[in-house]
Design the sequence.
């Protein structure tokens, strides 16, 4: 039991690094009809650039515009050596088309590069090879919006260590391609969204237990546990689908710091509820109320990915379905294991009680980070 509890503690501490979403950069590649040049906007997180280029000259932990601007040539050189465009087998030549700028994303400040890729004829095909930060962060991804010559709809591409080289279609993507790409993005996001996963699991941990007096006992049959899980998952899905759609369609907008702080607070409350059993038979209500907030978090990621205006509904549906598929995959793994362990002290004490305390502590740390812009040691 002691070893298991130490393992839970170690995992919780390690998970601190996932308080915010993992490292991404954002690329928009746009080819104009009748031209072989490709206009490029590239947003790269300052925290990532500082890590590899040591931009913070005075070492005080706070980057200034002067420090960033002083290294603008180094930033451009570093970026362009980690992205290669080839047309017809020949490398495109990079040119800077504007000064380095800064922009805000949901997870911090980004450097914005304005570039042009001077290519030969695009008729023989175009390929992109991406390797930014892969040597220091294998989980890093390049999120690309590619607009083919004469196309009104962009194509979403995700570059990772397993997909570092991809072809750029010279024709606008069809509906199925758009749906498939955003579906995969939705699955990936829920799997790396540690705060969303912890909130869901905190609500599901008691689903295989029943509260009697001051103690938790295992349920007698699998059916009631499944029913409880279905109610929680359905309520969470319905709620975040509503706000995800409203936010993605720009009907409602909330400040990113407020949303991220509220998500962390929801994890704290869901975990603490497992200790007191205050909301036992209506955990689906908690799932619905806070699911509305989580929907805004999903929407910020979808906005960062970029929404193709010509296929807005397909992208929105694909991403939402992808989130649900990823969520159901987590539930499918969790529920049988939890049901098998429901009578053990390891589950009732180690996982439910001690695990909920650790989750609440971790989420409280996230709340302080997000609400007060406190970076801390993680």
Sequence:
């Amino acid at each position: 039991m002691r070893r298991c509890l130490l393992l839970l503690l170690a995992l919780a501490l390690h998970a601190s690094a996932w308080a915010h979403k993992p490292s991404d950069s954002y690329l928009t590649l746009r080819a104009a009809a009748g031209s072989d040049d490709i206009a490029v906007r590239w947003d790269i997180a300052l925290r990532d650039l500082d890590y590899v280029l040591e931009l913070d000259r005075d070492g005080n932990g706070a980057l200034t515009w002067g420090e960033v601007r002083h290294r603008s040539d180094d930033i451009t050189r570093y970026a362009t050596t980690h992205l290669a465009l080839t047309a017809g087998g020949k490398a495109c030549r990079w040119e800077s088309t504007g000064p380095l700028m800064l922009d805000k994303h949901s997870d911090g400040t980004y450097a914005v590069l304005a570039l042009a890729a001077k290519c030969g004829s695009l008729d023989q095909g175009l390929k992109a090879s991406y390797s930014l930060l892969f040597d220091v962060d294998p989980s890093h991804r390049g999120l690309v919006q590619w607009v083919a010559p004469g196309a009104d709809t962009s194509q979403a591409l995700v570059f990772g260590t397993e997909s570092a080289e991809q072809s750029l279609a010279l024709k606008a993507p069809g509906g199925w391609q758009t749906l498939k790409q955003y579906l995969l993005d939705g699955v990936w996001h829920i799997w790396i969204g540690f705060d969303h996963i912890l909130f869901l699991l905190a609500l599901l941990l008691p689903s295989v237990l029943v509260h009697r007096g001051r103690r938790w006992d295992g349920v007698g049959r699998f059916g009631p546990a499944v029913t409880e899980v279905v109610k929680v998952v359905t309520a969470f899905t319905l709620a975040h689908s509503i706000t995800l759609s409203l936010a993605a369609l720009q009907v409602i907008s909330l400040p990113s710091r407020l949303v991220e702080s509220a998500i962390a607070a929801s994890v704290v409350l869901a975990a603490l509820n497992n200790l007191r059993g205050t909301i036992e038979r209506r955990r689906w209500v908690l799932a619905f109320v806070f699911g509305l907030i989580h929907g805004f978090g999903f929407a910020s990621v979808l906005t960062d990915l970029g929404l193709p205006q010509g296929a807005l509904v397909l992208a929105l549906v694909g991403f939402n379905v992808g989130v649900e598929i990823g969520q159901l995959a987590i539930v499918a793994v969790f529920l049988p294991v939890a049901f098998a362990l429901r009578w053990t002290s390891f589950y009732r004490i180690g996982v439910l009680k001690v695990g909920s305390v650790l989750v609440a502590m971790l989420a409280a740390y996230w709340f302080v980070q997000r609400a007060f812009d406190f970076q801390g040691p993680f």
In short: Residues 4-20 have pLDDT under 50 and may be disordered. Residues 24-173 form one domain. The longest strand covers residues 108-118. The chain has two domains: 24-173, 182-372.
